Amino acid sequence: MPTNPKGTVASVEQAVQVQSGWLMLPLLIVFLLADIALLINSIQNAQAPLILQSVLLLMILIVIMNGFFTLQPNEARVLVLFGNYKGTVRKSGFHWGNPFYSNGPQAFAMRGVSVGPLARMAGVKKDTATTPRQGLGRYKISLRARTLNGDKLKVNDKRGNPIEIAAVVVWRIEDTAQATFDVDNYENYVPTQSESALRHLASLYAYDYGEENEITLRSNVTEVSMALRAELEERLAKAGVTVDEARLTHLAYAPEIAQAMLRRQQAEAVIAARQKIVHGAVSMVDMALKELADKHVITLDDERKAAMVSNLMVVLCGESEVHPVLNTGTLYT
Fold first, then answer.
1. What is the structure's pLDDT at 11?
2. Would the N or C end of the chain have less CB density within 10 A of its end CB?
3. Cα 248 to chain center, whole Å?
4. CA 32 remoteness from chain centre
């Protein structure tokens, strides 16, 4: 069996099958009716040994009938007998097993325990009374996919800028033995580790404006989501949990720097637009001069070309409306 770095043996799920409940139910009913009839007959005939035997048999039958249990689709039961793991039943339906299989502990939410925002969504509320959590009982574990929709977390990105980030995680139980025995409460373990992984991920990448070919949170959402899923799978593997999907649902600068970053984005957008306008204007001026020269429309010396380039650049790059000025002389008078 695999062990973790601390030397603790990791649990491994073992699939087992138990008796069909539909086979055991009529059999036990027959024995129960027969024992009741024997008890009545023994009482009528005042046969003390038979009375004791029938009462003892009745108690045994009542205990045996506690072994019935049902499983819905995508639901499993972990079988624990006197502290020993005996296997996991995954087949849905009506079953009968050893009546001494443990029914499983109830999880508790302790008063005054500090939990993160993702843990609160798993049902652990801060400053709540110590009350049993409503669970499936009998070591039953749901194998269905579950969605963990995280709250906004305020963290610092790679450059130290405060940002707000949130993620949604779709997860399910893969190994029921690990989920039951290797962590104290997997329903609390998953949101806590998810929050920790998201904080760590945000510190590895810049929000935006990275260096060339650098992955950023804003520009490379797909790559960042894949990295988040990989880290979650590594963290949650010890709890027998697999992650089907993990993606960012919210990403923004923190309110205290949002306005400054907005002005920066606007300035960079203006610069980028100006660069594109100038590039287009230079191309148009170059094309105009070539067309005039190739078609011999007019012959211009360097000074006249400079004047024409200046006028065209003003017309093409200016933001306000252009008002033409008529020149009745020449450039030399």
1. 86
2. C
3. 9
4. 51
Asked whether the beta carbons of 147 and 220 are under 8 A apart, the reply is no
Closest listed residue to residue 136, CA positions, set 110, 108, 104: 104
Determine the topology of domain 117-125+133-253 in CATH. Tetrahydropterin Synthase; Chain A (3.30.479)
Q: At 235, give phi and psi (nearest 5°).
A: -70, -35
Core vs surface per residue 105-120: b (16+ CB within 10 A) or e: eebebeeeeebbebbe
**Contact (CB, 8 A) for 12 and 240:** no
Q: Per-residue pLDDT tens for 228-243?
A: 999 999 999 999 999 9
Collapsed DSSP state (helix, strand, coil) of residue 141: strand
CA count, 13 A, side-chain hemisphere, 330? 5
Burial readout 68-77 (b: 16 or more C-beta within 10 A, e: otherwise)? bbebeeebbb
Other residues' Cβ atoms within 10 Å of the Cβ of residue 258: 14
